[in-house]
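Researcher: Next sequence.
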Amino acid sequence: MDLALARTFLAIAEVGNFVKAADQLYVTQSTVSARVKQLEALLGQQLFLRSKAGATLTAAGVKFRPFAEKMLQIWEQAQHEAGLPENFRAMLVIGVEFTLWQRLLVHWLPWMRNALPEVAIRAEVDNSQSLMRKLQDGIIDMAVTYTPLHRNEFTIDTLLAEELIMVSSNKKAFKPWDDGYIYVDWGAGFRAEHMETFPGYEASAIAVSYGPLALQHLLVNEGAAYLPRRIVRPMLEDGRLFEVPDMPVFSWPVYIVYADTSDEEQFAIARQGLHYIASQEDISS
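Model: Next structure:
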């Protein structure tokens, strides 16, 4: 199957609109429609329900989506492996959650280049669920995440313990039920602890799944949110943010997840480097 068909299908599934997908792919809407028609003919199934509001996946489209994603991932991996320059003996692919990129990977990459100059590195930034799926499919070699998937074939190694503290944009003593509190969804574990700690809490007017977005909001608007101490420390020191007094501090671990078969020396050195970089961070002060 032409991979352009899979890319087009996934673009439409993501944005829910043929016109927007065409803009994203830099092709005409008629090209997008023709590709979908060709793909539906190949599969013998209708993949989208079209309406004035856009396009939604049919039951067949929902079933096809993970296969389309896997086809593109495998092709990308094959391109990288086959295109490995002669002066590199291997490639290591690491996945990391968005909010951990600046924390760890920007420091780990030069460490790795120095430790293993003959190993090429590809880094993928994604959400935890997608990273775990890529690890299962063998698309990445290891993942750095807050929310690991517990499976028999995975080894889960604690990398560091993050502290989530409530900070506000002024000295007002916010509570989770106050107007202006932004709920940051740090994952299932945090959701459970948050509910247990604040049993009277109801849904906030603003909830986000990406911590840096809440931070940017606080820097220009009044409010409060739970954010990593390490990230907000400079803003606490210069007075742009304030730690809310008498609020509980949540411990939120970061993990390295990798397949049990990842016993090659390069993987061990990569994990060693991550632990070294993490040890250089002063998480709690």
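Model: The mean pLDDT is 86. Residues 43 and 60 are 9 Å apart (CA to CA).
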